Amino acid sequence: MRFRDEYRDGRAARTLADAIARTVTRPWTLMEVCGGQTHAIVRFGIDRLLPPDVSLVHGPGCPVCVTPVEYVDKAIAIAGRAGVILCSYGDMLRVPGSGGDLLAARSRGADVRAVYSPLDALEVARRNPRREVVFFAVGFETTAPANAMAAYRARQEGLGNLSLLVSHVLVPPAMRAILDAPDNRIQGFLAAGHVCTVMGYEEYLPLAAHYRVPIVVTGFEPLDILEGVYRCVRQLEAGRAEVENPYSRVVRRAGNRTALAVMGEVFRVIPRRWRGIGDIADSGLGLAHAYAAFDAENRFGPVALDREATGECISGRVLKGECKPTDCPAFGTRCTPEHPLGVTMVSAEGACAAYYRYRGIPARSS
């Protein structure tokens, strides 16, 4: 516990918060792009420790939340086919498509299985050679190496009954899209430490230089986040825009070369639609041409992207950092984790779920 608790020391947190307060002289708006960081901020009240001039905005840091509804619909349709086993991370099972979710499909008789790793899906395929096994591969760069390894090993073993329905997304292009928005108000970023553990942080260097925004690689404990905020504010006050890595106990500049190698072997960069946000160029990963035989869209038909339906849920605006979950009139009343209207309340990494769990339902004026 020591290695966790030392990053949750209350006295050290107050010291960092005081240093931020002494440094700031004008309003600054920072964004974290990581659902784990969002939950830590809300759980530990980090935003409440900061001076009023420093605002934290929650970005599209929940990969489950940004998976397009059409991919959920496709997964449900595939799961409903005879002889198919659909494997998925557990947090995808309750993500709503246009007409239900994977849990509902399982209740209707579909063989939908929650797995902890794509290698579990590989084992399911080995044990069920007469059935088609499909793994719903979603996530940021963090989960991409393990998903790539599943396809790599299936190819090595000649395992022809495994395929992947891939909806991977990449963080830097999403940051670029946010900064390119005409109403952008983000002046600095806390970069997701787990993404940088895989990818390193070299790809952030041109972003910081081009847009003149500081980017600080940040971990997930309270002191990590406060250190990231402090370094971001210090750069902004000094007129600097650089990439810093105080999370060096985990992250290296070049990332994990072994993980990057298997990703480069199995995946290729493609355009991707983000749920609640829209199309972002070069923001996704799809299977490389050499792995086309393991692409579920080749086996079961392509995902037909359509215009996303609109409704009462404002999760798209929450994902873009335009508003907080509590700005939604349905938050905590018509929308709860038990009866969610949108993905940011469904996912364990969603901002709405974090606010509901740790902040409760806000009082509303009549």
TrEMBL record:
<dbReference type="InterPro" id="IPR042244">
    <property type="entry name" value="HypD_2_sf"/>
</dbReference>
<keyword id="KW-0408">Iron</keyword>
<keyword id="KW-0479">Metal-binding</keyword>
<comment type="similarity">
    <text>Belongs to the HypD family.</text>
</comment>
<dbReference type="Pfam" id="PF01924">
    <property type="entry name" value="HypD"/>
</dbReference>
<protein>
    <recommendedName>
        <fullName>Hydrogenase maturation factor</fullName>
    </recommendedName>
</protein>
<dbReference type="InterPro" id="IPR002780">
    <property type="entry name" value="Hyd_form_HypD"/>
</dbReference>
<dbReference type="InterPro" id="IPR042243">
    <property type="entry name" value="HypD_1"/>
</dbReference>
